[in-house]
Structure formats: structure tokens, C-alpha cells
Amino acid sequence: MHAISFIQDLAVIMLIAGVVTVVFHRLKQPVVLGYIVAGFIIGPHTPPFGLIHDEDTIKTLAELGVIFLMFCLGLEFSLRKLFKVGATAFIAAFLEIMLMIWIGYEIGQFFAWNTMDSLFLGAILAISSTTIIVKALNDLKMKNQRFAQLIFGVLIVEDILGIGIIALLSGIAVSGTVSSGEVISTVGKLSLFMIVALVIGILVVPRLLAYVAKFESNEMLLITVLGLCFGFCLLVVKLEYSMVLGAFLIGAIMAESRQLAKIEHLVEPIRDMFSAIFFVAIGLMIDPKILLDYAWPIAVITVAVVLGKMISCGLGAFIAGNDGKTSLRVGMGLSQIGEFSFIIAALGMTLQVTSDFLYPVAVAVSAITTLLTPYLIRAADPLSHTLGAIVPAPVARVFGLYGEWLRSIQPQGQGAVLAAMIRKILLQVGINLALVIAIFFTGAFFAERIGVYFSDWVSDVGQQKAWIWGAALLLSLPFLIAAYRKLKALSMLLAEISVKPEMAGRHTARVRRVIAEVIPLLSLMVIFLLIALLSSSMLPTREWLMLIVVVAAAVAAVLWRWFIRVHTRMQIALLETLGNHPES
Amino acid sequence: MHAISFIQDLAVIMLIAGVVTVVFHRLKQPVVLGYIVAGFIIGPHTPPFGLIHDEDTIKTLAELGVIFLMFCLGLEFSLRKLFKVGATAFIAAFLEIMLMIWIGYEIGQFFAWNTMDSLFLGAILAISSTTIIVKALNDLKMKNQRFAQLIFGVLIVEDILGIGIIALLSGIAVSGTVSSGEVISTVGKLSLFMIVALVIGILVVPRLLAYVAKFESNEMLLITVLGLCFGFCLLVVKLEYSMVLGAFLIGAIMAESRQLAKIEHLVEPIRDMFSAIFFVAIGLMIDPKILLDYAWPIAVITVAVVLGKMISCGLGAFIAGNDGKTSLRVGMGLSQIGEFSFIIAALGMTLQVTSDFLYPVAVAVSAITTLLTPYLIRAADPLSHTLGAIVPAPVARVFGLYGEWLRSIQPQGQGAVLAAMIRKILLQVGINLALVIAIFFTGAFFAERIGVYFSDWVSDVGQQKAWIWGAALLLSLPFLIAAYRKLKALSMLLAEISVKPEMAGRHTARVRRVIAEVIPLLSLMVIFLLIALLSSSMLPTREWLMLIVVVAAAVAAVLWRWFIRVHTRMQIALLETLGNHPES
Q1: Residue B284 lies in a domain
Q2: A331 and A458 share a domain?
Q3: Where's the Cation/H+ exchanger transmembrane domain (chains A, B) (predicted)?
Q4: CATH code for position A91
Q5: pTM given for the model
Q6: What is the tally of structural domains in chain B?
Q7: Which of A29, A88, A383, B168 is the most buried (most CB within 10 A)?
Q8: Smallest Cα distance from B348 to chain A, Å
Q9: How does pLDDT run across A7-52, given as a tens digit for each residue?
């Protein structure tokens, strides 16, 4: 058959990978490193040369490896876990990513690399490696300790932020510049897309999977999962985002399915096969000459990764209220880079905006920091003892006071319940508004095409616009009403808290009612202005607008209860899917 | 990233395959048919056109599908099952394959197709489809009935014979002619290769897998399995056999591993993914125009498959001593063609010896016979009743008498034990001789290369040959000695049976001893002649030969016990692997 050279490549990759991983396992090093070394051995830059013939096909398979890696990361992600991670994870992850991007950028500038290389270096250093950390904590049997749980929380937040970084970098790479307006617009659009995709996905996909799972055929379930995965990736690519984002999102959506355990089971061997090819393909690209030429930057970057992550994550954990020892452990556990860095480096290469040396440098730094990880984790406790002995007493007292102060300002009892309620209401309002905005965005996006389609019936462009805009408004009504009701509840709550009888005396009830009515109305007006701004391209003339708003108001008034019922049913479906989940 | 068209192809394939398989499952039809229909829908010959962009990559993945299909077939095969299947399976499978190849060839000639097309058509019709039969019997809940067990036995023998057919066809396709000498030589070489590969494989591979499994990492086990699978396929390809053969053999070898259940578990999702691509790729190639043009041959071939397989398998089962009802059920259960036919048709296409229409015709016949299978199985009992009523009483009595006669001639009690012993001894002698022949073959194959390597030390070509031949003889000694001892045991057994005291009187003991000594010696001489013939290219001069034989005889005499011990240890290792298997 004609694909013998391809089979030969696969045979060589799998054979060498198999041998090297066994060796690495015996040396108690992560399998991932073994794959990279295997790729290095069979690569074109080291003897024996020419073991791989069909490098293009291998690279295509390696991209499948990236998709499956991110898909499985998404499967392990789960929104519930994100909701559960505490302040520590958010603060530490933000601090780490900001600091590391900055440090990376500055290092690049120091070595006189160009702006893109510096920027990508920053992104490469930003995200720690889930694979490596899980492996190390497993080996050290520390997986169930508190600091390990904190680390997993940080990793979850990092995944989401990493996805954002990839989307941002793609945009920046295409436009070639970094403007804050663009960054905000990209982040906004991305958040909007993610929220909409997650809401619709969680409403549809788990139901679909449950239907297919009824047939009790592993094969059919697998093919459906793969179809959804690749199909969603394709959709995301058509929307000009990265495939990586699509794979992660659809994984996160499927993580809410009841078939999660089964799906993980079925997809894991496929991921293992393709990710092995991916990591071997990384090794293939390493040229020892580049490593020698860039030995100095590699050393600097390695030190920067270890110290930068240790300090930023440790500080973040401390600021969020953990004690010094735990904070240090969190910081030292996260001190490495891994698969995310490879994906970002690969992105730079395929977009052709980074230099050739960046990839091997990233791989080298990842290899070194990976090797260091277990030692760093084990060194955390002795180091915190040493630090405790060295740090002068007054400084230590300040740190202690900070912890006490933090605990004192944290809402307790009724206050904490209230804070949680407000958070929940704001989240719900946010999601509803995101859906409304998405509806108008979609309308604006398709307006021209729909216009052409309609032109036989409605010739006047203004009238076309009016119809589309009106339809969008009608579709948004359930979400707008829901948002309005939530906002009203929030303002009543706020009025109750802020207007005390001691202050307003006998006017208390009236003032409270005014506040409770005014705030939601004001917010609604702001929302309308926002929508008008966003959908400016398809905004009809003023007369039409007035007419539509009046009609919409009438519809809303008449169908108020029905809209609420529809929305409630969707909300229940969503919460059921999120809640009905077997513990895995 | 650059492989977007490829991802798009995968997305389209998986999405359509997912939808169509769900529909087919609801229609209670095999998923395989669904894949083919999905391929037909997205194919270039039917609207919507142009859904698939990167057909080459899809075909490469489809070949991976063939490899994984055959590998999993090998995993389910297992030598023990082959040893256990009774005469029914062998007789029915032989009869079926011979008849179907002949019928297929004649049909091809009838439609004035060329010789190669006719021959491949015969081969395409020869093997029934395990996938379809298992599915149908599952659906009908008949999997545990006696006739189903007989069918599974036939399928196992068919697999082995099918592998032989593929090897033969490859040889014939390259040389362009069919000579009986060539067929015998191909079958001989193939059997030799399979025996050697199985013996060495079963000695080495399960041990290796057990070692890797100790690390309790699914990933490492999977990568090792894939490495061995592709590596072995590559070796087989280098020996100019088909990759399909390699995948099946290494599967059969791994079937003897204790990790079988785990391996099946890990490989199944990968097989499902790639075999889906394989079957979809089959559908891609169907051009409805060809189907219309060849409607008449398709109808004839379909009838031939159903009737031919029904009669040949039914008759085979009956000859082997089953009652009419069971025989009919066996025959009607096997009345279809499937994956093996696709593989053979694909072989013809990639070797470029068959016409373009053969593949779609095979697919069409397979689709129709697949649809018929469940109805045929259900129709078997009514048909046997009808036949019982129609067939005239004398004919029925003849059939009944045949069954009785067969039971009367079957060895009973001591006779049966004796027959089993003789069979076992002959099998052991055969395996040992196969290994000896393989050693000399390998020697002859590498003789020239080794000669060049040795030329610095030993310049005389005759002397070189003597050394290589001598080394081969030395390596063969343990197996020769084992064969000799088994033959001696056999001749003693035969002498005991054939020379009765009533006949030979007081000479009984002496005659027996003579027979017991003469037969093994004669056999050994025949073996030596055979070896000399096979290794003629590297046979040394007569003086050298004499010297070597004398030396070998001396070595054999001195190390006799040691050789026996080595051989016994190997045999124990082999039997342990074959015996120590968890029931799956």
C-alpha cells in the first residue's frame, strides 16, 4: 500500500517513544520528557539522520495531538470547579500571568529580540504545566494536601486565562500591534463567545450525549464525541479563533455531561497516542546547535521562570490569606512551564511571527524546569523554615498582622450570605446580558446577508433593518426581563441594607421603594444604550425604533409571565445539567 | 494552524458518521453500513460536492483503520481458539473458500472481465464478515447457541486462510501469473514465516508487555503496544508481505499476553475512530454511476454469495457431522461479505491490478448481503422444516445414515486418546522443523552480506559458506534433537500399535525395536536432504560438509542433555504463556 513511509514513521516514533518512556519511568522522570527526548533522538538534527520521511503528515497528526490534549484538559476543567476555587486561585493566577508576561517581555528586550518574540516569550512563560505538576504531586504522594488543592485551583484559572492569551496573541499577531482598545475588544468578544458557547453548549450537548449513550455502544458514543469535538473546532476556526480554544471549550461543555467518565475513558487512549506524536514532534524540531547558541538566554529564562513563578504565585497565595508555608509551597509547585507553552510557541511558528529559535528555547526551559519541579516542591518546607529564621522579627510581625487583618475584614455570618447572594445575582445578570448582546451581534453580523434574502419582500433597507432589529429585540426579551427582575431584586436588597431607619426615619419605606425602582430602570436604560451602540450598523431610523420599542414593550407586558416561564425552564435545564453530575 | 482543511474533513466525516450511525442504529442496521452510507453522502460523486478536501490524508488514516481492524481481529483470534475449533470449522471454511473463489472467478469470466479482476472477485467473495455476523447474532440474541459457536469457529479458520489469500494475491499480482509451483512456494514460505513469527513472538512479546504493565501506566502500555504493532507491520512489509498480515499476526501474538483485556480496552477506541474513517473512505469511493452500470453483475454476485456460501458452509458443516438444521443455520449465518472483502479489494486497487469498478461492486454486494443476514439467519429454521417436508424419504435416510456412519468411525476411548497423542507429536515435530528451516533460510538470505563482513578474516568463499552453514546447523541442533526425540516416540508408539504379538510372535520385541529405530533415522535423513536442498545457495563443498556434519554429530553427542534442557525450557516458557491465560 502507498503509505508505507508514513507507517514507517509511526513505527519509528512509537518504538523509540516506548523504549525511552520506559527508561524515563525508571529514572522517575515524566513520560512527556521521554517523548521529547525520543523526538530529539530520531530528529533530523541528530544522528541517526533521516529516520522520519513524511514530516508533514506527522505534523498534521501532532496537531490532532494538540486538539486532544486541550479537549481532555477541558474535560477535566468543569465549570463547577471554577466556581468553587477561592480567591487564592484568582489572585495568584492573575499576579503570576501578569508578572511572567512582563518578565518574559523584558528578557526578550534585554537580548534584543524583536517585539513579537519578546511578547510570545512572555506568554510562553505565563502558564504552568498541569501534566507535570499532577505527575510530581502524585509521585510525592502530596496530591491531597491543602496546598495541592490550591495549586489545582490556580491551574484551572490559568487554563481559562491561557485560552484568553492564545486568542489575544492570534489577534495581535495578525494586526501586528498591541493597542489597549484592541485588547479590550478582543477580551470582550472572547468572553461573550465563551459565555454564549457554554450556555448553549451545556443546554444542548449533554442531552445529545445522553441520547446517544442510551444505545450503549461505545463506538457510537465515541464517534459522536469526536464529531462534536471536531465540528466545534471547525466552527471556532470559522469565527477566527484558535482551534485550541474550540477543543478546550467543547471539552468543558462535555465535562457537564453525565457520560463524562465514559467519555474520558474512550478518549484517553486516543489522546495518549496523538499527544505522544505531538511531544515527539516537538523533540523533532530541536536543533542542538540552537540550544548551544542560546545557552545564555535559556539559563536566564529558566532562573526567571523559577523565581518569578515562585514569588508571584507565593505572593498571590499569601495576599489571598494563606500562611507563609502554604504560600511558598504553592509558589514552588507552580515553578515550571509545559504543554501550554509548547502550544503557544507552536502558534507563533504557524502564524510565522516568531523566530525559529523561540521554540527550542521554550522546550529547553520546559525540560529543565520540569526536572526541577519535584525538588522544588520538596525544598519548600526547609526553605520556609530557613526564611522564618532569617526574616527579622518586625517584618514577620507585619506579615502576621496582615493575615489577621484579612480575616477580620472577611464578611462573616449574615454578611457573608449577603455577599454570596449579591455575587450570584450579578453573575446571573451578566450571563443574561451576554446572551442579549450575542443576539444583537449575530443579528448585526448576518444583517446584510439576511437583507439580501429579504429584498424580494421588503425592498426598503430601513425597513429591513427595522425587521431584523425588532426580531433581535423580541428574541432578547426573555433575557432582558430576567435581567431586569434580577436587578430589581438586587436593588431591593441594596435599599434594605443601605437605607436604615435610623437615617431616613419615617421616610425609610418610601426611600427604599424609590431606590428599588430607580436603579433597575437606570440600568435598563444603560443596557439599551449599550445595545444601540453595539448594533449601530443595523439600527433602524428613529421612527421605526420608536415603533419597535413600543411594540416590544406591549409584547413584554402581555407575555411577561410566559417569557418568565420560558426563561425559568431554560435556567432549570441548565442548573440541572450543572448539578446532576456524578462525582468523579 | 495549517491543517485546517484536514480538521474540516475529519469534522465532516465524524459529524455525518455520527448522525448516520444513530439513524442506522434506530433502523436496527449495522453501524458499518451507516459509515459507508455517510461516506457515500459526503463523497465527490453525490451532492453536496466538495465536502472533503484532503482526500490523500483521509486515505492514509483509512489505512491506519485497516491496520487497527486487523490488529483487533488478531487480538480476538488467539491460537488456543484455533486449536479448539473442531473439524466442522476446517471443513466448512476450506469448502467455502475454494467454492467461492471458483464461483467468483467464473462469474468474472462470464462477464468477460480480465483474469486479475476475476481472481480478485473470487477472493473478495471468499471470506465472510465477522463484524456483521457478531452484530446480527447479538441482535437476535443467538450468540450462545451451538450453531453460533460453529460459525465463530469457521470465522477463525477463515481469518487464517484469508491472510494466506492476501499473501498469495500480492505475489500473483506482482508476477502477473498463477502457477501451482509458485502458489505452493508462497504458501510454504508464508506458513514458515507465520510459525516462526508466532513462536518467537509468543516467547518474547507477552514477557515484554508484562514488564511494561508493571508500571501501571495505561499510556506506556498503549505506546508499547502501538510501537510493537507498527514495528512488526514494518518488518513484515520489508519481507514483502502485506501490512495487513503483520497487524493480524502481532495481534494474535498479543492475544496470548496476560494483558489482553487491558490492551483490547485501550486499542478499541483507536480502532473505532480509524475504522470509522476506513469505512467512510470506502463510501467516498462509491460512484452511483458505476452501481447503475454494473447493476446486473451486482445482482448475480449477490445471489452467488448467498447461495454459494449457504451451500458450501452448510455442506461443510454437514460433512463434519452436524445435523441438517444446524448445518443450514451455519450456512445461512455466513452468507455475506464484509471488511475482509474491502481489504482485498483495496489491495487490488493499491497494487493497480484491478479495474476501478471492482471496489464499488464489492461494496454494493456487501451492503446487500449485510442487510439480508439477519433475515437469512431467522429463515434457517423454517427453511429446514420446508426442506424436511420436501426432500424424499430415501434421500433423507441417506443423510441420516451418513451421520450415523460418521459417528461410528470416529475414534472412541483409547483410540481417540492415541489419535490426539499422534496429532500432538506431529504438531511438535512440524514446529521444530519449521524453526530449523527458518534458521537455514535466514542464513541463506544473509549469507552474502555476512560473507562480505567476514571477508577480512576468511577470504575463501567456500570456507565462508562452511562457517555460515555450520553455524546454522549448530543453532538448529536443539530443534533437530527435539524433532528426533519426538519422532522416536512416535515410531515406538506406531510400532506398539502396528506390530502385534499375534503377527510377529516371539520376534515382536525385536521387530518393534527395529521399527522404532529405523523410522526416526529415515526421517532425519529426509530432513537433512530437505535442508540441503533449501540451503543449496550456501552449501559448502563436500569435504567441508562432511567435516561439519561430523563436528555437529560430536557436539550433539556431547551436549545432548544440555540441548534438551534448553529446548525444554523454551517449550515450557511457550506453553506457560499459552496456558496461563485469564479466561476472557
Answers
A1: no
A2: no
A3: 13-376
A4: 1.20.1530.20
A5: 0.82
A6: 2
A7: A88
A8: 10
A9: 888 888 998 998 888 898 888 888 888 898 898 888 887 777 677 7
